[in-house]
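hey can u run this one w/ zinc ion bound, need the structure tokens asap thx
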Amino acid sequence: MNAKEERAALYEQGRALYFEKNASAEMRAQGLSLLLKATNRGHPQASLLVARLYFEGEIFSDQGEGEHQALLILSRMAKKGSLEGRTLLDSFCRLRYERAFGRLKRRGDLPLSDFDGREIVLNRLGKRYPVNAFLERKKGKNILHLQVFLRFSYTDELKNEKAFKDAVYRGIRAWQGEYRVFGGQPLQVKVKISEEGGRRARLRVMPLSGELYGSLGAIVKKMPAGKKKRRLESILYHRRSFAGAGGFWSAKGSKMIFLQSRGGRFDDLLELEAVTGHEFGHVLGLGDLYEGQVDGLGGVEEGCYPELDCYHIEGKQYNLVMCDHHAPIGNNDIEMVLLAFMQNKMQLYQPTGRNKRISYALGRGN
Ligand SMILES: [Zn+2]
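ok here u go:
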């Protein structure tokens, strides 16, 4: 038997023992230990099953610890590209969130109001905004419209331009959906993308292919030594994608999303889509929830903000889009987008160098 067959056998035997109709306590314990072994060896079905058992409190008597173990297993699966692991991870996080915040009052028929009960008026329209943002009330429903004026710039031809553009569109549209903000008020987010602004469009998406990568490298090389230079050098070196707003973020300022691709081929479409989703969060005025020490951010510890804890995996890692680009967009993110456009001010999850103030949205639930 090779390693793969061995772990499959562990899973089959473990499952049979654990779910046997008249299983004794010992049989179940033995079954479980086989399932855990299969999970440790990375068997996908065993991992999903064990995560479920953990989450449902079948294994640990401590509910919180069981859930924590479940999220850890699933997050590892998701990191390796398992779609099933990703789906279950996201749904478990949502369940935890619903449990903590789900019973907030619904006030869908009233105008959207902020934490202090003041009605929110949002009407950022015009050619100078890369993203137009406005609130609409339609048949008693509150809708946030995000209208994106997009321009693609390339220096080199892309082989699969259509597929690349589609991935970028999907990444931006990922922000659409039904959310709950400011004390549980339902809000629908709609995204419209237009490339009709031509050269005037103020959100540029630039794949960092051959020539552009070289010229950006040259610009960074000439920059004065310091934090900003080190950050850009690290981004280019590790081929991470990034969004640029040119100095401080403001709703009007033109914005850029630079996309890098492994091997420079721009054919890792799922990755490009996910990265675009995260970078678009920066375009909308959100800071990172966590990046490594390279960018000088300290990270947010578990226990700081209850609405984030439901998404906490381990260390400073959260299953949220501004932490991990494959992770979902949370209610808190949308609350922060609203605040960014209302106050014309970037919304931070964690203090950065000059900017110490974190978003007003944090620590208030949703
Ligand atoms: Zn980021």
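Residues 278, 282, 288 surround zinc ion (CB under 6 Å). anyway lmk if its weird
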